[in-house]
Amino acid sequence: MELRHLRYFVTLAEELHFGRAAERLHIAQPPLSQQIRQLERELGFELFHRTKRNVQLTEAGKVFLGEVQQIIRQLQQAIQVGRQTSRGEIGQLVVGFVSSAAYNILPIILRTFRSYVPGVSIELHELTTDQQLEWLREGRMDVGFLRPPVEENRFICETIFQEPLMVALPEAHLLTSQSDICLTSLANEAFILFPRILAPGLYDLIISLCQQAGFSPKVAQEAIQMQTIVSLVAAEMGIAIVPASLQNLQRTGVVYKNLQEDSPKVANAMIWRKNETSRTVQRFLEIVRQAAQQW
């Protein structure tokens, strides 16, 4: 039994006329009659009562028709799902992100992806850079957004967003009266930093900037989340040099100021496994690149 036999049967059951059914199927009438006879022999029961005047479904034929129509609907659904999957339009993605990404490009990426590919569900996890690398190695995550650099050649890391650094000050700090902050004026300040082991790129950039200004920062506290760093600044535990997008985190008690010095921009990158074959992942990467151009 082949699928075409079932299609022939359904068409004849709808038309109840061999001539009209053959015309719909774009075949001659005798081959259609032969195929229906062959199907009945294989099934072991008659599907149609045939007379010179008309064709009618048998009771068994009526029951069989209902079941076959359900099979065809399921097959059509399977084909549709397969096509959507092949285009990366259905499935699930596990996405990791560093906390600061939530305040710059991640929201527009998620909105754009949802509008283009509503059939893919996204499972989000806020993870540090080193945690994302671990999850990628273990196959627990598909795509990440982190702070480069990444040295492992098993991954592809692509910069999608760059931004300057700013100074976060407690609102009662004397320097808040200045429009821009000179780095040298921070030499005696207590710094709150992200641990180097979790984000060496950002940490090294901040340390290098301070050293170029003639001092090494006095680290009073480390915190693994940007929100925590900003909260500690609000608590007057120290000052922090942070990515400019942290201004989008509205926190009472914190004032953000530009640096007078020109400084290298800090990057956000997306990362995925080099041998990734999922069309859903590839579709996500394409949309991320589109969204990044809008930023």
What does this molecule look like?
By secondary structure, the protein is α/β, with parallel strands linked by helices. The chain has 9 helices and 13 strands. The strands form 4 sheets. A 5-stranded mixed beta sheet has the order 4-3-5-13-6, sandwiched between helices. The chain has a 4-stranded mixed beta sheet with strand order 8-12-7-11. Strands 1-2 form a two-stranded antiparallel ribbon. Helix 1 crosses helix 3 and helix 5 packs across helix 9.
List keywords for this structure.
295 residues; 4-stranded mixed beta sheet; 5-stranded mixed beta sheet; 42% helix; alpha/beta; 13 strands; 9 helices
What is the chain-wise order of helices and strands?
Answer: HHHEEHEHEHEEEEEHEHEEEH
Biggest sheet, spatial arrangement of strands: 4-3-5-13-6
Q: Output the radius of gyration.
A: 32 Å
Poorly predicted regions: none
Question: Topology of this structure?
Answer:
Blueprint: H1 3-15, H2 18-25, H3 29-43, E1 48-50, E2 55-57, H4 59-86, E3 91-97, H5 106-116, E4 120-126, H6 129-138, E5 143-146, E6 155-163, E7 165-170, E8 180-181, E9 190-193, H7 200-212, E10 218-222, H8 226-234, E11 240-243, E12 254-259, E13 266-273, H9 279-294
Parallel strand pairs: 3-4, 3-5, 8-12, 9-10
Antiparallel strand pairs: 1-2, 5-13, 6-13, 7-11, 7-12
Helix pairs in contact: 1-2, 1-3, 1-4, 5-9
Offer a concise description of the structure.
The chain is α/β, with parallel strands linked by helices. The protein is 42% helix and 23% strand.
